[in-house]
Design a protein that fits this description.
112 residues; single chain; transmembrane helix; 66% helix; 4 helices; membrane; mainly alpha; transmembrane
Length: 112
């Protein structure tokens, strides 16, 4: 049992949880005052090298996340196999392992 059980479907959580986690992490990183010796680039280097305005970056991220959410929602709609009782039946662990192995094999074959 999870906290959102009964309030939000697993499909919506799978769609929007990564986006929420991204913004929480990005906000925490921006608010955290790391000393320059712990940063990958100093604040001076960041201001010199960042040529794109922050507003343009945020618009690009929001557009990418909108596309991500739409594609995820469409995939959930297409692949859902809910039974008449509304409960989704998950395949057994051996079947999932075989499906994973097939998916990896297909990725390897595509790269050859």
């Amino acid at each position: 049992m999870v906290l959102w059980d009964g309030y939000v479907s697993d499909e919506l959580m799978g769609t929007f949880a990564p986006i929420v986690v991204y913004w929480l992490y990005a906000g925490f990183y921006q608010l955290l005052p790391l000393p320059d010796n712990y940063r990958l680039h100093t604040r001076k280097e960041e201001s010199e090298k960042n040529l794109v305005p922050l507003a343009v970056v945020i618009k690009g991220i929001l557009l990418q996340q909108l596309v991500q959410a739409v594609v995820a929602h469409l995939i959930f709609l297409v692949t859902s196999n809910a039974s008449s009782s509304g409960v989704t039946v998950q395949p057994s662990l051996p079947i999932q392992a075989v499906q994973f192995a097939i998916a990896i094999a297909m990725l390897v074959m595509d790269t050859l």
